[in-house]
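for the writeup, i need someone to sanity check this before i put it in the appendix. the sequnce is what the collaborator sent (i think, or maybe the updated version? ugh). structure was predicted straight from it, no edits. if anything looks off just tell me and ill rerun, i have time this weekend
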Amino acid sequence: MKRLYFKSTKQIIAVALSWISVMILLQAYFIPEFDKLTGQKLLDFSEFKFDTINQIVSNFGDAGVNLYFKIQFFDFLSPLLLGLLLVSICSTILIKRGVKFLFIGYFPYLLTLFDFIENGIILRILMNYPEQISIKIANTLLFVSSIKTFFYLTSFLLTLGLIIYYFTKTKNI
């Protein structure tokens, strides 16, 4: 755990700025470009069912699928940076406060793991285009997307809770 401890807030800020830069690039360039190219919004597949996923991907067309591949690079980079950011914040607070249960600081890496799994499934769907995906792949995508959403929410709540704990508690656990 000590390896994740950042001695300087500048290091945490650098990771935060890297993640923010990736998100701005996605939101300001790639997603509007995708919307313009395909006439569709880039959607979260977790909201759909088997038939809907196949229909959406087929509506992207060749150009949309190719652009989606480029977007996927940043969609892999974003959770990696976010996981590192949240883990570094959590571990820094836990170590500075002398908390015994340092493994808690690793929890945000679960959001990175499940986001990577989800992105891998989406890549498989894109690589199989124009063939239809199987119901097994669609159901796996929906399941993994739900788990990813859970870990995003709990990781943000954990980080927020630790920040509040850091600024309000005076005693070590």
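DSSP finds four helices and no strands in the chain. The longest helix spans residues 50-97.
thx in advance!!
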